[in-house]
Amino acid sequence: MKNSKEKIKRLVLLALFSALLIVMSYTPLGYLNIGPLAITFNVIPVALAAATLGPSGGAFVGAVFGITSFLQCLGIGGTSAMGVILFDISPLLTFVQRFFPRVLEGLLAGFIFKGMKKLTNNAVSCAVTGFATAFLNTALFMTTLILLFGNTDYIKDMVGGQNIIVFICSFVGINAVFEIISATLLTGGIGAALYKAKVVPQRIQKSGGKAK
After folding, report:
1. Alpha-carbon distance 169 to 150, whole Å?
2. Is the pLDDT of residue 13 over 80?
3. Which ranges in the chain belong to alpha helices (H)?
4. pTM, whole model, 2 decimals?
């Protein structure tokens, strides 16, 4: 009976974060488009899933994020200016670039949370997880962009002969900073509240040494 309740809790949270991410993806709540890139708030449900459901939960909601991101390349749920161009170059590589980094960021964020819980309390662990998720989102997105499309004229024109590191830092700019700040604060606050309300599965609550 206890295990059934824990499974129900897990499924409810998984459905909640997935639904929240989808709603954000199909409304202005999820993205603030600035030029070819966008400030992405969709990392927050991924971070919350990682902090309350572990690596598998983070990876699942990350996959939902990846699918919605790819659909934007087709003009579904908004339009990504960069995604449309990349899709014209290679639909397959565009899917890989949009989907797999988001799954990996959720997975890694879940492990980061598990590690942080052994060192500190839930609020700090959730905040660090939010920070890590937003950072990984940008880092993995840009890394796969350069690896998969770095030889295309589109990216070469953007780089313009700059050092790759300089290009990435200047390209993501304030977008990445704003994503990281918002994800850190909101994941820390909401995550701590979820733990305090005891809606997080006990298996996750009890992992680590200082869950307060």
Report:
1. 16
2. yes
3. 2-25, 43-72, 81-89, 91-117, 122-149, 153-159, 164-196, 202-206
4. 0.88
